[in-house]
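Chain A, query sequence.
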Amino acid sequence: MKRLLALILFLGLAQSANAVYIQIDGQVGSSFDVNGSATVTVIGEDGSSWLGYLIVEEGGSGVLGDAVKLDAAGDLGAVSSYAEPGWGVGYELTAATSGAGVPITAGTQFTLDFAGNLGDSAKVSLYLDPEYTVPVASVYLTIVPEPATLFLLGIGGLLLRRRR
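Chain A, predicted structure.
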């Protein structure tokens, strides 16, 4: 009987957790090649309040910037820069009902820009309260040249080879 009660309690707590995930340029996945920059979108699947950190984990190159909180009133929560040695650099995000009483809605809640230089790679992770030890979502980003740039480099290489 105790096991059954423990299982019911566990399942009840698991259902009350806000499911939050991240997209890169509108796509869900775990690894992306991007052309110098990308839009990171934080999406909540329900209207629960939450506090979390979206960071470029230590050792990664590239930066997050231009954080925008999204809702009808423009007052979804709070966004502030965050850095902690040994962990990473990014933003603290708070999704909460606005001061005007506008509730949180499911869907896009925050957008940020990721930018880096050619060859940079980074792990971007979202950690939520109360356990900041395991990310609820992580993506790996690698900065690659645009296809047009690769094409022009290839043509230039062929022309140089042909001249010799």
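Residues 4-16 have pLDDT under 50 and may be disordered. The first strand starts at residue 20 and ends at 24.
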